[in-house]
Amino acid sequence: MADINTCLRSYESLFFQELSEVNTAQELELFRTKHLSRHGELSKLMQQLKDLSLEEKKTAGPLLNVLKVKVSDAFTQREKEFEQMRIDHQNMLLTHFDVTAYKPVQPTGSLHPYTQVIEIIEDIFVSMGFEIVDGPEVETDYYNFEALNIPKDHPARDMQDTFWLTLPGLLMRTHTSPVEIHAMRDRKPPLAIVVPGRAYRNESTDASHDFMFMQLEGLFIDKNVSLAQLFATMKTFLQTFFEKKNIAIKIRPSYFPFVEPGVEIDMSCPFCTHGCSVCKKTKWIEIGGAGLCHPVVLKAGGIDPKEYGGFAFGFGLTRLVMLKYGITDIRLLHSNKIDFLKQF
């Protein structure tokens, strides 16, 4: 019995070794004749069964059948490979291919400056544990104003010239802050989110203003949240974004209805130390607003302000893009000028 098992293993090794050395269809046919024909090596092995005892046949028979299937499948696969090679070669002969023909060069595109900056910003905040979220650009009056502590008679509404839609109560969002309310309602605290996206305001277009602009909104909710955490987050982000470890931030008191207290954040100019045209000789650049979340906003998001607090911040993403790449006219970002776009 040991002899037949050894013989089967030896033959299987020989079969696959010789099959791997077949390189042409003619060699494959010779290989088939040698191993798989009526008088081939596999048939000779099958004939050896008659010389075995009944018990040996019960064991060797199934092994031999498995070997027969295995080698037959391997040969069929190799046969298909050669047939495909034959078809490919025939198609190549039938297809005219002029290697000297001129191929026009197609210019490769690149990511828009907005997209590049958004990806950089998202990577920075994700590394700090924030989640990237999105929300609708068509909003309701409630989410855009009332849930953010801006009721109908609030003077802050006059500061934002709104695009109202024909359907009652719908508008183009004037900031990305409404996404904060959606996020608070969809998630349980603690949470940390960043919202890059478009906002719309009905104002005239010039070199520094446009009716559509990009904003970056951030929200952090947890217990015992402080302004110190907010300032550390802002400083880390700005230093990483501008690749300047010496960037400092300056805080000025300000008013935003959805935070209390509210602050304006200035950063030291990343382009100079003594004043330049970018910082208007002040050595400081206004970068955005922030503050601790107002209790009214937390309640609108379904969060108990007695148990949780939070901070929020908002940057003009368009301004960050212009600062990052030295762009002086906002209108270029929304144009289709190839000479401008191919720089990035």
Q: How would you portray this structure in words?
A:
The mean pLDDT is 85. α1 packs parallel to α4 (54-94). This protein has helices at residues 2-20, 25-35, 41-47, 54-94, 113-127, 141-144, 178-186, 227-241, 295-300, 317-325, 338-341, and strands spanning 131-132, 138-140, 170-172, 191-200, 212-222, 249-254, 259-268, 284-293, 309-316. The protein contains eleven helices and nine strands. It is elongated, with a radius of gyration of 36 Å. The protein folds into two domains: 2-94, no CATH class; 113-341, Bira Bifunctional Protein, Domain 2 (BirA Bifunctional Protein, domain 2, 2-Layer Sandwich). It is an alpha+beta fold and 344 residues long. A hairpin with a 4-residue loop joins β6 (249-254) and β7.
Question: Which features does this protein show?
Answer:
344 residues; alpha+beta; BirA Bifunctional Protein, domain 2; 2 domains; 7-stranded mixed sheet; 11 helices; elongated
Q: Outline, from the CA principal axes?
A: elongated
Reported for the largest beta sheet, the result is: 7 strands, mixed
User: Strand content of the residues, in percent?
Assistant: 15-25%
Reported CATH architecture of the largest domain: 2-Layer Sandwich
Report strand order across the widest sheet: 1-4-5-9-8-7-6
CATH class of the largest domain: Alpha Beta
Number of domains: 2
Mean pLDDT: 85
Structural class by secondary-structure content = alpha+beta
Low-confidence stretches: none
CATH superfamily of the largest domain: Bira Bifunctional Protein, Domain 2
Q: What is the count of β-strands?
A: 9
What is the tally of helical segments?
11
Q: If you consult CATH, what is the topology of the largest domain?
A: BirA Bifunctional Protein, domain 2
